[in-house]
Structures are given as structure tokens and as C-alpha cells.
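From the shared-data thread, chain only:
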Amino acid sequence: MAPSSAKDDPRRAGAQVRTYLASLPADARRSLKRLREAIRAAAPGAVDAFSHGIPAFRLDGRRLVWYAAWKQHVSLYPITATMRRAYATELKNYETSKGTIRFPLEKAPPAAFVKRLVKTRVAEVRTKSKYRLKR
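Structure, as C-alpha cells:
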């Protein structure tokens, strides 16, 4: 089945992600690639997406997570209420805002923690998908 729009085309999104990564300074690119690898490991069926000017992943046709590099950190979005409750202790070690966690550039994002966050998000997305099908 063909993507419903150009924005849903994983090949086009993959090219946009590569362009985004190539535009970053080396330290930010390195840190963001580590974050990206941890996301992929936790959600192997996810496909590239590009939305709101930053890289993302889609899973089962739904938006899963976004990730981006900034001057001082890399970020992972969204950090949902479920994730906040489940990982409250670990999240205290990082700067957060309502929907994001920020990992400082000088310290690699901890792959194990990122994987747990993403797996929780995968469960949320799949639960919401099942709910929508039953309605």
C-alpha cells in the first residue's frame, strides 16, 4: 500500500533525517545517532518520519517519538504522563519539561533508559490503536 502522502513516505523521511543529521555539529550528531540507535533497538518495526522540522519515528501508522539536537542537549519527545509516573526517579537525573527529556551533549544518552522509555511509548501507541479499532 502506498503512503497516503509524501509526509508519510519513509524513504523521503529517511532522506530528510539524513540531511538533518548531516547539518549538525559533530558532537550533536554523535549524541543524536546514539539516541536514534536506542530508539530503533526498542522499536525495531518503527519507520523514519520527519515532522515539525525534526526527525521522528512512526509505528503501526502512528507517530511514536520525535528526537532532536540542540546546542547543549539532545531531546526525546513525548514524555507522557504514564512515562513520568513509571520513571519518576530516573527522570529526576535529567532536565525535563512537560513533554520532553533533555540529555546533555557531553554525556551519551543512556541506551538502557531510552529503550525503557520507548518501549513504554510503544505500549501506549499500540494500546491506543487497539482502542480505536474497537470503537
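The two ends are 24 Å apart (CA to CA).
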